[in-house]
Structure formats: C-alpha cells, structure tokens
Write a structure and sequence with these properties.
6 helices; about 25% helix; binds 2-oxoadipic acid; binds magnesium ion
Length: about 260
C-alpha cells in the first residue's frame, strides 16, 4: 500500500460523490501516480462500505475487461473485478434514468447465478460450472466516473470498474450440456443489431472469468456466496446510449432481456 487510510477514505468519498451527483472527474492516478493495486481495491472496498451504510445490499460481483474487444477499446490488458449492489439492478424491460448517469454505455454479458459457494485460490472452470445454478442474459450499463472514459487499470478498479446499473433476465439456462463458448449473442439498439459475439470472446470461456474472480477474492480472504449473480464481462465493445434508446440483448437458448433509456 502506498496510500494512507485517510487518503483511501477521501478518494472513496470523492468517487462516491461523483456517483451520487452524476459528475465526472479526472482519473485519480493523475494525483496519485504511485498508487498500487491494493490501494485501488482498498478504495473500491471503502466505496462498498459507503454503499452498504446507505442500506444497499451486495447481490454479486462483476468481472470486467475480460474480452479482447473490451481490452482493445479501453487500452488495457488485464481483467478487473468489482461488486454489484441491489441499487444497481433494473427490472427486465424497465427504464434506466440517464439523468442519474454521466455517459452510460451498454455491454452484452453472460450472467452466472451460483448455487454453492465458490472459493479461491485454485478455483477453475470445472468448479465454476459445478457451482453454477444457471446462466442468464445480462446487460451491464457502465458509467465511468472518469472524464471521457479515460482511465488506467488502478483508477478503474478504485471506481468499482465503472459499475452503474445492470439488467438480467431471459429463460435461465442450466450449464450442463451447453457449450458456453459457442453461445451466441446479439445486442440490438433501437431494433438494429449493433454487436455480435459468442461466449468464447470472454477469456476463451466465460466461466474462466468467474474462476479468476473467485481466485481474486480468495487472495483477499473473500469468496462468492451461493445465490450470487456474476457478470462475466462484456463480450463485445461497449455501446454508448442516450435517452430514447431501447436496448435488447438476445442470447442463444436464453431469449432476450431489454432496457429503455429515458
Ligand atoms: C470498465 C468496466 C468494463 C466489462 O464488462 O468489460 C466492464 C470500463 O470499460 O469502463 O464492465
Ligand atoms: Mg461489464
């Protein structure tokens, strides 16, 4: 750790304020260039404590920057992990109020729901599949608090990996007998297909992202509890949205999930 507890708390308060007031900021590594990974996750943890103290509940976790499309788009090279709270969740077919956000983008994702605890280190794809109750379709709405989505990895980790909203739905799909690598997806904006892909875009297999998440949490003495929802990461580049847009994600064997931006 390079940052003092006070600095960690004040950066968390700053980023949390940006979330609550839909205000952007410069990436925090500009002022704290020697920040380390554990500082970044400590800031994210402090933001999580602030959300929980306002009454939010943890519903799951997310992996991000797990596909080459996303890594290329954001100019980074390793996945990052964040938390999901109930206040981020929107109902399938519901509305997302853009006045509460800075510059939202949508990502097509495969969401895992667990039936048993997942604990690293040593967690692998097989353990993830054995612990998975089902997968469903997930649209993640990301909203980096950094101006023009310009950040580096430590800044984005501190900002809870741009997490803002998500919608999950469709017909739950059991993972036995399904090859998640070849599961096809189509993302539509206002009725037009705008992005396409398959599960293998995420680290070769989307369950690999969940295993990495479990190993990341395990290294910090945490685990993924049964009943968690995990977003495994954008399969394609993120797509910018604004008020008036309708977004639908279709996933092979699962059906569709949608959200309207107002
Ligand atoms: C960081 C979050 C990336 C994903 O699925 O790749 C992410 C960002 O691009 O702002 O959630
Ligand atoms: Mg995402």
């Amino acid at each position: 750790m390079k940052l003092s507890t006070d600095t960690v708390e004040s950066l968390a308060a700053h980023l949390d304020g940006c979330v609550l007031e839909a205000r952007d900021t410069l990436k925090i590594t500009d002022a704290h260039p020697d920040m380390e990974w554990d500082d970044a996750y400590a800031i994210q943890d402090a933001i999580r404590r602030r959300a929980l103290s306002r009454g939010a509940r943890i519903v799951g976790y997310k992996a991000g920057l797990t596909s080459h499309a996303k890594m290329r788009q954001m100019n980074v090279d390793v996945p990052v992990f964040g938390f999901l709270v109930d206040t981020y969740e929107l109902p399938d077919g519901g509305e997302c109020d853009v006045s509460k956000l800075i510059h939202p983008k949508v990502e097509p994702e495969i969401a895992f729901v667990t039936k048993t605890e997942l604990k690293g280190p040593g967690c692998h794809i097989g353990a993830v599949l054995a612990a998975t109750d089902f997968v469903i379709a997930g649209i993640e709405v990301i909203d980096s608090r950094y101006r023009d989505f310009k950040f580096d990895l430590k800044s984005v980790v501190a900002d809870n990996t741009s997490a803002a909203r998500f919608v999950a739905g469709g017909q739950p799909l059991a993972v036995d007998g399904v090859d998640l690598r070849t599961l096809g997806i189509v993302l539509e904006k206002n009725g037009r297909p705008v992005a396409f892909g398959a599960g293998a875009a995420v680290l070769g297999h989307p369950a690999a992202a969940v295993a990495m998440l479990a190993n990341h949490l395990g290294a910090r003495g945490e685990s993924i509890p049964a009943g968690s929802l995990i977003l495994s990461g954008g399969i394609t580049e993120a797509v910018a949205v604004e008020a008036g847009d309708n977004v639908t994600l279709r996933v092979q064997g699962i059906g569709s999930v949608g959200v309207r931006f107002v």
